[in-house]
Amino acid sequence: MTDLEKRITALEDKFEIEQALNRYVTGLDTRNVDLYLSAFDENAHLDMQSWGESTGIEAIKAGVYGTWEGFESTNHVAGNFTLLSYDGQEAKCRSIVISFAWMADKSPLLSYAAYNDTLRKKEDGTWVICDRIFDTRFTGSPDSLWGLKKEE
Description:
The protein has helices at residues 3-30, 33-37, 57-69, 143-146, and strands at 40-47, 53-55, 71-86, 90-103, 108-121, 127-140. The chain is of the alpha+beta class. It has a single domain (3-146), classed as Nuclear Transport Factor 2, Chain: A, CATH 3.10.450. The chain has a 6-stranded mixed sheet. β3 (71-86) and β4 form a beta hairpin.
């Protein structure tokens, strides 16, 4: 592989790694379980701190269904994607995520967190999360900050 081919492959991989994050947040917000699960390796480990910990795709699936029961809606914005290490088959990255949600009881919830991910490249070129550690920076009600109230 030429140097140019290696650089193009690395750029394509970085894009695909970011797409794993996008599949996760989009699947979570749209409640599309297949899209959500497509972000994970079959044996993935997901440590969501106070939200719970899961290992394996079936446990992650059960966890997201439990999470959805507590929320009316969620809206995640992911950014500040930083690729920390990459060798063509495994990558470590960090992303900052802000989430605004309406709880099932109609109360608002604001969260700010970092996702610390280890991903691997599958044979088909798709990147999937093998390990995610959710580093919560803030979780609380934004109504004291902005006076938000959900209209009935």
